[in-house]
């Protein structure tokens, strides 16, 4: 267990930053910062990209702080590991159809689409749901149950190639619950609100980083 890792939560003005920070601190990680400074991001061991709200506003905030260019270098060139959460995961896509088309970070091929489901499946999708794990490593290594439950709150989902999907949720359709591409990871659900399973996910992710 490596509790001295330098973890930086990317600050671009979204609302769930402090709940993510509190969950990580609860696990005993003390070398934790919330920052949008290039120097902090570049010297980190791992980055967390949180997110709630609308995709287009999130991208505007990122671009207004020049974080798209900074993160492109750190993640795509330096290969620093990053975990996107909820809208933070959706930002990894080529773009989103929410409120018209908006370009994303374009790190994982695919697009963000509105959940259009049978009336028996309410939208937004809010609450606890089991996920089906396709690839345990590294996010789900600590999960003894192969269908653990996590807390979701979203109206849009990441449609991507099956090879990038590490888990999915059956919600009338197979909703991408997590993605993985090289050093880039994302989860649609909120681990910071998912009690013990969310804490296990954070621990598993941080333990996987060399």
Task: Walk me through this protein's architecture.
The chain has one domain (7-207): Class I glutamine amidotransferase (GATase) domain (Rossmann fold). Helix content is 25%, strand content 30%. The protein contains 6 helices and 14 strands. The chain has helices at residues 17-26, 38-42, 55-64, 67-77, 87-90, 195-207, and strands at 7-10, 32-35, 46-49, 82-85, 95-96, 102-103, 110-114, 125-130, 132-133, 149-154, 156-160, 165-170, 174-181, 184-187. An 8-stranded mixed β-sheet has the order 2-1-3-4-14-13-12-9. It has a 4-stranded mixed β-sheet with strand order 6-5-7-11, covered by helices on one side. The chain starts with 6 loop residues before the first strand and ends with a helix.
């Amino acid at each position: 267990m490596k509790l001295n890792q330098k973890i930086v939560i990317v600050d671009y003005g979204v609302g769930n930053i402090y709940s993510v920070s509190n969950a990580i601190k609860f696990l005993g990680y003390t070398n934790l910062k919330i920052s949008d400074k290039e120097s902090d991001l570049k010297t980190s061991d791992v980055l967390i990209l949180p997110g709630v709200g609308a995709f287009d506003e999130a991208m505007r905030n990122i671009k207004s702080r020049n974080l798209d260019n900074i993160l492109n270098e750190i993640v795509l060139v330096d290969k620093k590991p990053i975990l996107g959460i909820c809208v933070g995961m959706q930002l990894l896509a080529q773009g989103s159809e929410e409120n018209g088309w908006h370009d994303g970070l374009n790190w994982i091929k695919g697009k963000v689409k509105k959940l259009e489901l049978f009336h028996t499946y309410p939208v937004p999708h809010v609450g606890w749901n089991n996920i089906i794990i396709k690839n345990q490593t590294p996010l789900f290594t600590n999960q003894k149950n192969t269908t653990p439950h996590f807390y979701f709150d979203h109206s849009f989902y990441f449609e991507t190639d099956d090879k990038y999907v590490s888990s999915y949720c059956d919600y009338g359709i197979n909703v991408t619950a997590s993605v993985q591409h090289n050093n880039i990871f994302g989860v649609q659900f909120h681990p910071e609100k998912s009690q013990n399973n969310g804490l296990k996910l954070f621990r598993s992710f941080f333990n996987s980083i060399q």
